[in-house]
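Thread: "does anyone have the structure for this chain?"

Original post by V.I.:
We have the sequence but no experimental structure in hand. Need at least a predicted one for the grant figures.
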Amino acid sequence: MEIVFDASTLILLAKIELLRKIAGEVKIIVPEKVKAKCLSKEGIDSLLITTLIKEKKIEVKKAGNLEAIKKIQRDFRIETGEAESLR
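Reply from O.Q.:
Generated one for you, tokens below.
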């Protein structure tokens, strides 16, 4: 099973020490913007996320249709990373 995460979910799972377990059970995919947001501040969560990316437990993908992403952002008033996660 594949799951696409937004930044908030990924960070919170890392903080409560469940991210590694989930990464062992499902394929985690994040857009590039989500990766950037997760790694923008230093902390235990960003270290774990970086490690899981290096271990290929989290796959970073480039967002697809930019027009669709912009429309989702406008329609739902959300940030780019969240919109890319919904693609």
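V.I.: this helps a lot. The mean pLDDT is 92.
O.Q.: and The radius of gyration is 13 Å.
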